[in-house]
Design a protein that fits this description.
Elements lengths: L1 H5 L4 H20 L3 H17 L4 H18 L2 H18 L14 H14 L3 H14 L5 H18 L2 H14 L6 H14 L2
Helix pairs in contact: 2-3, 2-4, 3-4, 4-5, 4-6, 5-6, 6-7, 7-8, 8-9, 8-10, 9-10
């Protein structure tokens, strides 16, 4: 909050500040600090507005907002933020029209985030098609990313009551895990396997 208050008038500085606030809100959502995440996103949105609301930035903030909405179970805001992120990204285009720190965002990334948000909201049937596409799009060259994508899809099938498919996907994630050193990924696998035990 202090960062936003002390930011100078340069639009590029304000855009970067807004992006940093959006990332902070994302972290707060992971920690379950939903009120804090909402407050930070509000400040990020006002800061973006004072910098001219470039669509590349507003698309990033909408992607952060959809994840926060999913974590707090606000499905109406989740869908609205997903639609906004896609629309703003379409306006932003690519290359020089977007800041370098916004160029990671793609329509596929928004869909992946939408699936994770539906999963966090415990609406697995809505999450499943997004998460399936995420697995299909994640390259085997990035085993950690693919392992996490497979685990999300396995969790969706588990929430739907499809234990057999969830176990199959968990085994796939376990095989991928031999090349992954991420503690978070392996902890997630262990939690899911524990939940699937008869």
């Amino acid at each position: 909050m202090r960062l936003a208050a002390e930011t100078g008038p340069d639009p590029l500085v304000r855009q970067a500040t807004s992006n940093l606030l959006g990332s902070t809100a994302y972290q707060a959502s992971w920690l379950g600090q939903h009120k804090e995440a909402s407050a930070i996103l509000d400040v990020a949105t006002r800061t973006a507005r004072s910098a001219g609301n470039p669509p590349g930035l507003t698309a990033v903030l909408a992607e952060r907002a959809l994840f926060a909405a999913g974590r707090r179970g606000d499905t109406e805001s989740l869908q609205r933020a997903s639609d906004t992120a896609h629309a703003d990204l379409q306006l932003a285009g690519t290359g020089e029209q977007s800041p370098w720190w916004a160029q990671w965002l793609s329509h596929a990334a928004i869909d992946a985030g939408t699936g994770r948000a539906w999963l966090a909201s415990r609406v697995p049937k809505a999450a499943e098609p997004y998460l399936t596409r995420r697995v299909e799009a994640t390259s085997p060259e990035f085993p950690r990313d693919r392992m996490l994508a497979v685990l999300d899809l396995a969790d969706a099938h588990h929430q739907c009551g499809d234990t057999d498919r969830a176990l199959q996907l968990s085994q796939t994630a376990s095989a991928l895990g031999t090349a992954v050193g991420s503690h978070r990924a392996h902890e997630r696998l262990s939690t899911l396997l524990g939940a699937l035990e008869p």
